[in-house]
Design a protein that fits this description.
It contains 19 helices and 16 strands. It is α/β, with parallel strands linked by helices and about 475 residues long. The chain has a six-stranded mixed β-sheet. Strands 9-6-7-8-16 form a five-stranded parallel β-sheet, with helices on both faces. It starts with a strand and ends with a helix. Bound molecules: pyridoxal-5'-phosphate (PLP) and the ligand N[C@@H](CCOP(=O)(O)O)C(=O)O. Pyridoxal-5'-phosphate binds next to helix 11. It catalyses: O-phospho-L-homoserine + H2O = L-threonine + phosphate.
């Protein structure tokens, strides 16, 4: 399998190089040259398979040429052995139609662990025989940061510089990052929003002063390997609910469009999906884009779902690439225009390509809180606010009542205990995994949200 850039001019790479590269050199994102397909029989054959066996079947076509089955099994066994649930990503039923797919049983209690535990091991494996030291620069609205830090702390040949928006992550999220004192981990609070942090990361990939001095890589979902690992749980859940003979809908709380794009990949691979419901908070650029074609940024409004307080969703570019008929050079022109004006109108013919599969909803704070209370009262489940945004969207999507809807439960409620308590009156207990978090020393630096400030900081410290 080789990978091509959404902007059409970076060299095609194999899986190993794509994993280490992160972003393509033309500023685009890597995608497989073709979408591999699983037949209905192969999907049916996943019934009863363990998470690791499912992962091997789903990821095998993407890693051809870089990993054989034995290597993939070894990495997945290690990665998912760190999860606190035998099913890795268990399904929980809420009512006759609604299910939760709990993705938060990993070390940092958010869905990011599913991909980042594997990515940490992939980095280690691919770096073993190379004389390369990676400088990972990442942006987080809270969860990617802690998952990446857990996966990479103490690993040889990698330094991690993680940018989070100062004051805009929950106290638990911040401490999960800043109390890890390994010498290869650097936490930076930038004085701006997540979008500023993400823009700085992308600018560093395009900055010759940086790239001539360090080998950069990415842990954000711009890195293809992140998304690949997330495709697995769509198959795992759908098969348990009757796929391929029965269609399933998924409701996905969305920020950077990574998680829901993984659902799109599952659909391209042959998984029968009724609808992918893109759930946004009031920072609703993706809902506007999918429903009216208006892909224009406003100011970011801080909400009780900080991990979704995003305007510029990196992975939307991957969908636009397919909707454009995979015309990378044309998309490069569109993306350059968007980067300058922060606005784009998606042509109707492109939008039509998305309408059969995607639905979307904008969920405000009241809708989010009432979905959280519904899950608690109806099924005794305490949900985190992001999951509640997904559930609220699931319940208003108008999906036929015989189609199961799986809401992706993207974080443990304890990560957002103030918001959960405000909505339900119940304060989630801190899981043992977070024990002592508030007693540990924190270490981070605060920087202005500029390329110059972050570049100087990174270059001074990277090996
Ligand atoms: C808890 C939680 N839910 C949902 C999202 C949105 O996911 P994505 O950015 O892949 O759309 C994030 C951040 O990525 C998150 O941390
Ligand atoms: N919500 C995310 C934002 C970064 O998303 P990513 O999936 O591209 O890493 C976070 O938790 O940091």
């Amino acid at each position: 399998m080789d990978y091509i850039s959404t902007r059409g001019s970076a060299p095609a790479l194999g899986f190993e190089d794509v994993t280490l590269a992160g972003l393509a050199s033309d500023g685009g994102l890597y995608v497989p040259r073709v979408w591999p397909m699983l037949s209905a029989d192969e999907i049916a054959g996943l019934a009863g398979a363990s998470y690791v066996e499912t992962a091997i079947t789903v990821m095998r076509p993407f890693v051809v040429g870089a990993l054989d089955d034995a290597a993939l099994r070894d990495l997945c066994t290690q990665a998912y052995g760190r999860f606190n649930h035998d099913a890795v990503t268990p399904l929980v039923q809420l009512d006759s139609q609604n299910w939760l797919l709990e993705l938060f049983h990993g070390p940092t209690l958010a869905f990011k662990d599913v991909a980042l535990q594997l990515l940490g091991l992939l980095f280690e494996r691919f770096l073993t025989n190379r004389d390369t030291h990676l400088t990972v620069v990442g942006a987080t609205s809270g969860d990617t940061g802690s998952a990446a830090i857990d996966a990479l702390a103490g690993r040889a040949k990698v330094d991690v510089f993680m940018l989070h928006p100062a004051g805009r992550v929950s106290d638990v999220q911040r401490r999960q990052m800043t109390t890890v004192l390994s010498p290869n981990i650097y936490n930076i609070a930038v004085e701006g929003s997540f979008d500023h942090a993400q823009a700085i990361v992308k600018a560093m990939f395009a900055d010759p002063e940086t790239t001539s001095r360090v080998t950069m890589s990415a842990v954000n979902s711009i890195n293809w390997a992140r998304l690949m690992a997330q495709v697995v749980y769509y198959f795992y859940a759908a098969v348990r609910l009757g796929a391929p003979d029965r269609k399933v809908a998924f409701a996905v709380p969305t920020g950077n469009f990574g998680d829901v794009f993984a659902g799109y990949v599952a659909s391209r691979m042959g998984l029968p999906i009724e609808r992918l419901i893109v759930a946004t908070n009031v920072n609703d650029i993706l809902h506007r884009a999918l429903s009216t074609g208006d892909y224009s940024c406003g100011l970011v409004t801080p909400t009780a779902t900080p991990s979704m307080d995003i305007q510029v969703s990196s992975n939307f570019e991957r969908l636009l690439f397919d909707l454009s008929g995979r015309d990378g050079l044309a998309l490069a022109g569109m993306m350059r225009g968007f980067e300058q004006s922060k606005a784009m109108t998606i042509p109707e013919n492109m939008l039509n390509g998305a309408r059969g599969l995607f639905a979307s909803a904008r969920i405000d704070g009241d809708d989010m809180a009432s979905a959280m209370r519904w899950a608690h009262d109806r099924a005794g489940q305490l949900l985190d606010p992001h999951t509640s945004v997904g559930l609220a969207a699931a319940r208003k999507a108008g999906i036929a009542s015989d189609v199961p809807i799986v809401t992706l439960a993207t974080a443990h409620p304890a990560k957002f205990r103030d918001a959960v308590e405000r909505a339900t009156g119940f304060r989630p207990a801190m899981p043992a995994r977070l024990g002592g978090l508030f007693d540990r020393e924190e270490r981070f630096d605060t920087l202005p949200a500029t390329l110059e400030a972050v570049r100087a900081y990174v270059l001074e410290r990277s090996k």
